[in-house]
Amino acid sequence: MYILLQVKLYTKQGSLKYQTDCAPNNGYYMVPVYDRGEYILKVEPPPGWTFGMYDCAYVHNLCINLLVCL
Question: With bands split at pLDDT 50, 70 and 90, how would you rate the model's confidence at 70?
Fold first, then answer.
């Protein structure tokens, strides 16, 4: 079921930087981020599926705390 989900990383300006599928057994995903900055992370269902808060996106300011990036 998880394999049907798409995880997409966008810049704050809305450009798609990366997209991936979730692992089929547990929904795990990895998104490589090489540049510091603010990003929008969206989990998108396949056509016909809906999430309660589908229009919400998560804005992350990555690597403010440099210890997280080590």
Answer: very low
